[in-house]
Amino acid sequence: MTESFPLRVAVVGSGPAGFYAAGALLSAKQGIEVDLIERLPTPWGLVRLGVAPDHPNIKAVSRAFEKIAAQDGFRFLGNLDVGAHVTHAELAERYDAVIYSCGAQTDRRMGIAGEDLPGSWPATAFVAWYNGHPDFADLEFDLSGERAVVIGNGNVAVDVARMLCLTKAELEITDTADGAIDAIVGCGLEEILMLGRRGPVQAAFTTPELQELGEMAGADILVDPADLVLDDASAVALEEGGAIPKRNVELLNEYAARAPHGHPRALRLRFLVSPVAILGDGKVEAIEVVKNVLVQGDDGQIRAVATEERETIPCSIVFRSVGYQGVPIEGVPFDDRGAVMPNDGGRVLDPSGAPVPGLYCAGWIKRGPSGVIGTNKKDATETVEILLADAAEGRIPRRAAEAKPIDELAAARGHRIVTYAGWEAIDAAEKAAAASTSRPRVKLTRWPDLLAAAGA
Ligand code: NAP
Fold first, then answer.
1. Would the pTM of this model clear 0.85, i.e. be above it?
2. DSSP string, 260-319
3. pLDDT value, residue 4
4. Residue 369 CA to ligand 1 centre (angstroms)
5. Which of 147, 282, 315, 322 has the most CB atoms around its CB within 10 Å?
6. What domains appear along the chain, each with residue ranges and CATH number?
């Protein structure tokens, strides 16, 4: 042990990156103390509130987080918002190092006309709502129309489209928020239309997710074979690309050749179309799209370029699923263009490009909103290795010994923190509520209920 240990580290944001960072710090076996600070009363970030409820196997990664939380030196400080209840400066005074792992908390904007019409939603809001996020519990999605449009070709778009297609039997074994189950089961949707601006070779979704779309109990998958005719550059990209686009294109061809089963809903995938406007008188009534062609630039990238050909498609609700976006924290450097904290391997950099001593980042706020849950393990471990090297080499300033701990500071301001025991009480209450059902839990979706269950 060097003289710079034991360290006290605050990790802000308790999603996968935050838990993996905490785990890597505790595994260093240097007596490090970790406070995992979370804005919500519940941990796990997108594992609880982003991963689709019909994917329990992916959600099961929370068991690994529970093992991290059980280690000596770990504390969970929930219901504590850095920026609202305490400041970054107050954290920096109390901890030797702060790691931000606060993810990408909002949606990317498209910048098209009608984007803010009632009925045009960021997919991020819909995902948060069906997962029971307490900030989204009061949203009302009007699913009474015949067609919903999902913009984007990533795995979030696939999740949203699939969730809209699930049957009662598929939903009632999940922890989907109660209101969302009722709304999806009782909805009038006949077609869910997913729009990709580029072609099938460039789609961002992965093969298992695409495969599931062909196995839905209550919805047919429809693909127009004409959309699968590849331009030369895409054909080469497919030949030279990895296994994912090849398998995706194989599956899409299989779907295009299928005769529909006649299920009550249909999920239609279209490619090479970009929304240019969302139309309607006071609410969404249609979406105008332009047909694209693909053009390969000098950098080798294959981009969508609009043609003159336009089409208006009637619809009653639109979900814009074009990516999440990071938001700044006051007092912490932020790169507005990339919507990340500027960093070198996780060391946060000031505007001159120099590392800010003791300030680090991990996960989506470090690299942008990409990759699967496991990607965050490597990412957070890289940050922690750099932090430990900085500590060992005396590059981290030691905290002021006398400052009141952050939880006591918040308490002195009359703010109530939810501890790990409080979260365990919420967890137990949710599981108890599901005891007579086939659901893993019935989520508490409102702030007062969560705080009451936490006993805080
Ligand atoms: P994503 O994978 O980056 O996909 C974003 C999609 O939006 C792309 O198809 C992109 O098309 C499209 N897009 C961007 N701007 C657009 C515009 N102006 N008009 C039309 N389309 C536009 O993002 P995501 O779906 O939000 O997912 C975030 C990350 O979470 C991804 O790494 C994803 O794999 C992961 N995730 C994984 C799972 C899972 O494993 N089951 C589930 C959910 C999410 P271009 O390619 O043309 O830019």
1. yes
2. P---SEEEEEE-SEEEEEEE-SSS--EEEEEEEEEEE-TTS-EEEEEEEEEEEEE-SEEE
3. 46
4. 9
5. 315
6. 8-105+326-417 (3.40.50.720), 109-324 (3.50.50.60)
